[in-house]
Write a structure and sequence with these properties.
Order of helices and strands: HHHHHHEEH
Helix content: 55-70%
Strand content: 5-15%
Low-confidence stretches: 1-13, 16-20, 22-35
Distance between the termini: 69 Å
Number of strands: 2
Number of helices: 7
Largest sheet: 2 strands, antiparallel
Radius of gyration: 28 Å
Structural class: mainly alpha
Strand order of the largest sheet: 1-2
Mean pLDDT: 85
């Protein structure tokens, strides 16, 4: 009796694709919405520092973009009654596209957001300067990029103010036990003064002096420190959505 060995099919394991975070970056997800950083470690993570840096640098960038959009649109509208309005408007849309490219680059470096660039402007079917200008004026991506500069300006001002306020206030309050001795030694206060006012001839004032008050004050600061990355994440998520909607393909 003879036996034969049948070849077994080789089992192949499909490649494992790492999960993608909601903001378009790779990672393991993590807890607390921090993309793998962890809720309690988020205040010290490099990702939080990058996002805070993004909100801080977004203010001057937004000012430049908004000023460009408003100035160029006003100039092109004012010159619309002449032939000069067309080249000014075409230059405005080309500049808006360039600003959009810079915004996608910032989002890629600081937010880990990859957004495909929109298709280039189609070449005109007719030769000549005027057909090329008219083709540029029909560039939907350019108009969307211009709209982006207008819409995100007030949001980025608010993001800058909120991020800076929470960041500075949180750490200043949390570290109060380390510098509370400064007030009695150099300011003449027994502790940090919460309020000091006179109403109906009665003087009201309160200082943080007892260990319980100092500890509670510092704990409040720690709460703000832990919540700041979540706030910044929510603020930058709005930027992510705007970039996808108005600057992408």
């Amino acid at each position: 009796m003879s036996t034969s060995t049948l070849p077994y099919a080789t089992k192949t394991t499909p490649p494992v694709t790492p999960p993608v975070n909601p903001d378009g970056t790779g990672g393991t997800g993590g807890t607390g919405g921090t993309g793998g950083t962890g809720f309690w470690r988020a205040p010290f993570s490099s990702r939080t520092f990058r996002e805070v840096g993004y909100t801080f640098t977004s203010l001057p960038v937004a000012i430049v973009g908004f000023a460009f959009a408003v100035a160029m649109f006003s100039l092109s509208a004012g010159l619309a009654v002449t032939v000069l309005g067309l080249p000014v408007a075409a230059t405005m849309l080309a500049g808006a596209r360039a600003l959009g490219t810079a915004e996608r680059g910032r989002a890629r470096r600081q937010l880990g957001l990859e957004v495909a660039a929109p298709a280039p402007v189609r070449a005109s079917a007719h030769s000549g300067r005027w057909p090329a200008l008219l083709t540029r004026l029909r560039d939907a991506a350019g108009w969307k990029a211009l709209l982006f500069q207008v819409l995100v300006f007030p949001w980025r001002v608010a993001s800058f103010v909120l991020s800076l306020t929470f960041l500075v206030t949180g750490w200043t309050v949390a570290l109060y036990p380390a510098y509370q001795w400064v007030f009695p030694h150099y300011v003449g206060w027994p502790g940090y003064r919460l309020y000091d006012y006179t109403s109906n001839g009665v003087h009201h004032q309160h200082y943080l002096t007892s260990p319980l008050q100092i500890g509670a004050f510092s704990l409040l600061g720690l709460v703000l420190v832990v919540l700041t990355p979540q706030l910044v994440r929510g603020l930058t998520n709005v930027d992510r959505a705007a970039i996808r909607a108005l600057l992408g393909k």
